[in-house]
Amino acid sequence: MKNDTPMGQPGFTTPGGVEHEPASEGTQSPADMTVFVQSLLQQMQSRFQQMSNTIVSKIDEMGNRIDELEQSINELRTEMGAEGSPSPLPGNSKSEAVTPGDEPK
Q: What's CA 6's distance to the chain center, in Å?
């Protein structure tokens, strides 16, 4: 395999795997350099796009988790509100309910 850097080497391979021979010993033709730079930029753009997609995906996932967490919190608040309200105990009638100041019998 030839060196991946175009400068100072007798040939180079673009990031896409295309091998190029030098125009003359120790130098690169402008066309070879253009192909190498374009290929390198395409590879960088592809990696950037993959990273961007991954980040957006993780942000969407975090947003969904936050929505689920908010929903769970609201459900717990609703349950706590229902449990926090005074309700007669099973087996006790309203006439047997303890009023403030009265001691249970």
A: 36
Residue 12 belongs to what H/E stretch? strand 12-13
Q: Hey, how many other C-beta atoms are within 10 angstroms of the C-beta on 43?
A: 13
| pTM of this prediction exceeds 0.85 | no
Length in residues, the chain = 105
CB 2 within 8 A of CB 19: yes
Q: Residues 40, 33: contact at Cβ < 8 Å?
A: no
Supply the mean pLDDT for the chain: 76
CB burial of 27-36 (b: ≥16 within 10 Å; e: otherwise) equals: ebeeebbebb
The CB-side HSE value for 39 (13 A sphere, CA atoms) comes to 18
| pLDDT digits 0-9 by tens, 17-48 | 656 555 555 678 999 999 999 999 999 999 99
